[in-house]
Every structure is written in structure tokens, then in C-alpha cells.
Design brief:
single chain, 297 residues, alpha/beta, 2 domains, 3-stranded parallel beta sheet, two-stranded antiparallel sheet, 9 helices, 30% helix
Amino acid sequence: MAWVTPHGIRTVIAPRTSGVNTDLFFASFLFSLAGQGQAKYPPATEGDFLIKDFTFENQESLPQLNIHYTTLGQPVKDKNGKRVQIDDPRIDPVWAKCGELGIPVLIHSADPKQFWDPIDKNNERWLELKTHPGRRYEDKEAKWQTLINEQHNVFKKHPKTKFINAHMGWYANDLKTLGELLDQMPNMYCELGAVIAIEPGRARGALGGLGHSYASATTTLAPGESAVWLSDGLIEATNVADEPFGYDSVVTVLAGSRGDSAVDIRNRLLAAVEHHTAGHPAGDDRTLMVLRYGGAA
């Protein structure tokens, strides 16, 4: 991310605060410190992170990807060890100056609400939390709604500053509430980065024109190409160690099935799931449909 300081534009990767993901807020806080008279930046810590066999979404790959990063400061806590809130008045000059200069603020606060919810069958991010347990917040210093309220307090306190709320403000699966918030705070905008928790089935009531119908999409298959539909019961199928089969395993199986018939693709995927579960009982339905286009008759 980049922000303006008295010494020009600085770009850093700011760390997550302790139990609270507010990267831009932290960077802005450092900006406010740097702008106070002769105050100096805190010592910078540099580091490297190596990722081997990195694969992009287009399937191009690198034998290794080395990320070099710079971290400024420490997790944002006051001298008493208490969390510095997003709407802390000491940071108000930063938000106000952004409005004065016409600089929009991209702000990421909290994480998906499901990261605070119980990990059970009602949590739609169950698989993500199962495979990435470090994303679970549980009883950390601040609840999800507390962080969201603090963020909205900043928006309301600085109506002349434009705020771009990252990830649709975590309301992609509740467009009715998001619409109400946008009406209440006209200086709040949204972006769609990494948004996966939105689907027409839940959004249709807020979209007005869809009524009880689902949105539709059109795609074209070339001769020999296949389309696969499957339920999450296959992706979330677990073995005796409670490890899910996973989306990546589905992709791996399908990638190795290019050119196969629809029946062979179906059998290969089901066999891979059965091998993984090793007879462990299914916790959900396992539905699979494969369509292969053979070309015009």
C-alpha cells in the first residue's frame, strides 16, 4: 500500500495488528506520527518469504517466488497494552487531511464475520477455517461488530473524506444491509476484491428485479470440453482425521482428466473422494454432474 508522508510516497506491507486486521489503519497511524514536527519513523524491519512451486491462476508457474517486505512499527496498542480503536480520535487528523486533499482512503477492517462464528455446519466458511485455522478469531480483543461499528464511526465523523470499504465491507452476503449503509454514509464506496460470499440465492431479495428467480449466465463449450457441477458435500468430504478433500484436490483431478469422457471424469472424481475418505461416513450429500460437448451433430 502507499501513503503520503512529508518525505514523499512510502510503500510498505504493514503487519496485522494483534487479533485485528486493520492494515491501512495502521499505515495511516504511522503517517500521523511521521507528520508531527521532527518525529522520526520507527526502525524498519526487513524480511523475506520464499514460496516454492508458485502457481498463478492461469496455471503458469515459478519454481520459487521470493517476497521481500518491510515492516514499520509494532501492533497498535497504547502504553497500557490496550488496542487502539479504529475510530481513535488521535487519528482523526489523518482522515481529515485525506478529505482536504481529495485523497480516497482504501480501508480494510476486520475479516469475514464467519471467522468469529462457531465452526459448525452453519458456518459457510467451515472448510476455509478447517484448512486455515489461523484465520479463526474467536474471543480475541474485539468482536466483529465492534470493529465494523468503529469503522463506520470514522466514515460518519469525516463526511468529506471518501472511504473505499474493502471487500464490500463484509456485507456481500447481505446486500439489503449494505444498501442501507451506503444510503446512510454517501462517502462510503465498496470494492469487490476477494469477495466469495455472495450468491444470487441470498441476494435476490435485495436486487429487486430478480424476485424469486436466480440470475443466469451463458458460457460456450468447444468440442471436447466439459462442464462439471458438484455439491460442497464432495469438496468437504472428510477422512477419519477430519481432513476435507478440498477444492484444490478437485481441481487437480479435473486437470488430469482433460480429454476424458463425461463418465470417466465422473468416475475419476468420485474414486478420488472415496480414496480420501476411506469409508468415513458422509456428512452431506455428494452430488456430481458432468457434461461433455462432442460438437455439432
